[in-house]
Design brief:
By secondary structure, this protein is mainly beta. Helices cover 9% and strands 39% of the residues. Strand 8 (130-136) and strand 9 form a beta hairpin. The protein is globular and about 40 Å long.
């Protein structure tokens, strides 16, 4: 009976130790969901679209989109991609409108830089266009590490 009590007390004491909490440590290598982060805090009140957003996940980081013309975009960032080649597709929620591939200046395990210019037009005015960056599986060609980005 004393042995069971001893183990029970130690188990409960271990649960309350501050170092054993489920704290999340976030660093540059942490896998992040594809979420936009505001980084330009000096945005003027009358220019809400001028805030720069950065997108990232396990294979893509520091990805930004700049609209240079009504239907033209420049996408820059870094990718850690096998053989430095990745794919992209533009979707409107119903169908793929365009697709292609691009290269980084270095292959994995390095983070290679990329710069991509695309033109995208909506088929339906009320649709939303998404650019999806991804790595194709060498095994079966399926999409891996998709990074969805809202264009407009």
């Amino acid at each position: 009976m004393k042995i069971i009590f001893f183990f029970l007390v130690n188990a409960l004491a271990g649960c309350n130790t501050p170092g054993n909490r489920n704290d999340t440590i976030i660093n540059s290598d942490t896998i992040k969901p594809a979420v936009a982060t505001q980084i330009n805090e000096s945005t003027k009140a009358n220019e809400p679209d001028s805030a720069l957003k950065i997108y990232s996940n396990k294979r893509f980081k520091e990805v930004t989109v700049s609209k240079v013309e009504p239907d033209k975009f420049i996408i820059t960032g870094k990718a850690q991609i096998f053989e430095a080649s990745f794919n992209w597709v533009i979707e409107d929620g119903h169908e793929e409108l365009q697709k292609g591939h691009a290269m980084t200046d270095a292959g994995a395990p390095e983070w290679g830089k990329f710069n991509l210019t695309i033109e995208a037009k909506k088929k339906r005015e009320n649709s939303t266009l998404h650019l999806i960056l991804f790595e194709s599986s060498a095994k079966d060609g399926s999409r891996q590490y998709e990074l969805p980005i809202v264009l407009f």
